[in-house]
Design brief:
- The protein is of the alpha+beta class.
- The protein has a domain at 1-38.
- It has 3 helices and 2 strands.
- It has helices at residues 4-7, 23-26, 28-35, and strands at residues 56-57, 62-63.
- It has a two-stranded antiparallel ribbon with strand order 1-2.
- The radius of gyration is 21 Å and the shape is flat.
């Protein structure tokens, strides 16, 4: 909610991400080992997903970069 901090007497605040939030960036080797414990992922394109080749198109609109 916009203005909540000031309305509650807080003039300044700093966001600090939770510990472990950026674990893949902070310790990439350990993260790779952790990821390797999961089965390999298969890429799929399911019905209803858009194909993106720089242009997105539906029956009614065309989106271009």
């Amino acid at each position: 909610m916009a203005g909540w901090l000031k309305a509650n007497g807080i003039e300044e605040a700093t966001y600090c991400p939770p510990k472990g939030y950026f674990v893949a960036d902070e310790n990439p080797e350990a993260f790779e080992q952790y990821e390797a414990t999961f089965p390999a992922k298969e890429k799929k394109r399911l019905p209803g997903q858009l194909f993106y080749d720089g242009v997105m198109e539906t029956d009614r609109i065309i989106l271009r970069p």
